[in-house]
Specification:
Layout (H helix, E strand, L loop, with lengths): L1 H26 L10 H11 L6 E5 L6 E3 L4 E5 H5 L3 H18 L3 H29 L3 H38 L8 H39 L1
Parallel strand pairs: 1-3
Antiparallel strand pairs: 2-3
């Protein structure tokens, strides 16, 4: 049983990462019909939505693209900032989707932002408390660790609607603004769906781990 459990928590994220890498590698070689750089795609969508104050910057790393709500900046990895591919356009549009969410006070995004400090504390201290609780057979300590961990798991779960919504916004924008042609929609959507798999996998593994710990706690309290 435990072998199956560990196989799942290792293989599911690995599979998701391979899907992302494969889709990105494939479609980063397919130029978009408009030949727009990722940076230009981001700027076009931002301006079309009146977000002139949101900046677009280049950042190092592989698929390190993100939107920073503190500085109101869309940061694109070098390959996507300068790239003219469908993958670059899709990822740039996705990150701008988060900027639009921020501007429109998207409820799930606000909730996720509010959870950040709680989730950070949970991530940092949960396993310490859980290990002490398990090895010292202290059910109260284990329960406290589970509660801390639950906050981090909730953050992972809330991330899902945020990411899916950003991808939906991205597709709407690249189509309506003519960034891609109608026959390029399928490929663009594949990139966005593959990227979303990493969040789905992370959330699934986190929930599975939380359930396992709850079962351990239940068994411990039954023995007391």
């Amino acid at each position: 049983m435990y072998l199956l459990y560990f196989a799942v928590i290792i293989l599911v994220p690995l599979w998701a990462q391979l899907k992302v890498s494969g889709a990105y590698k494939k479609y980063s070689r397919v130029p978009s019909s408009t030949q727009m750089r990722g940076a230009d795609v981001a700027r076009k969508i931002l301006d079309a939505n009146g977000l002139y104050h949101v900046g677009v910057e280049e950042i190092g790393g592989f698929l390190s693209d993100h939107y920073d709500p503190r500085t109101k900046t869309v940061r694109l990895s070098s390959a996507n900032y300068h790239g003219h591919s469908l993958a670059a356009a899709a990822i740039a549009a996705h990150e701008v989707g988060h900027a639009i969410q921020d501007e429109q006070d998207y409820a799930f995004l606000r909730f996720r932002h509010a959870l950040v400090p709680v989730a950070n504390i949970g991530s940092n201290f949960a396993w310490i408390l859980i290990m002490i609780g398990i090895f010292a057979h202290l059910s109260g300590m284990l329960l406290l660790g589970i509660i801390f961990m639950a906050s981090a798991v909730l953050f992972q779960v809330i991330t899902l609607p945020v990411e899916f919504n950003a991808s939906n916004r991205a597709m709407d924008q690249v189509v309506s603004l003519g960034v891609i042609r109608n026959d390029e929609e399928r490929e663009t959507r594949k990139v966005l769906k593959a990227a979303a798999l990493t969040y789905v996998a992370a959330a699934a593994v986190a929930v599975l781990e939380l359930v396992r710990l709850v079962l351990i706690f239940t068994g411990m309290t039954r023995d007391e």
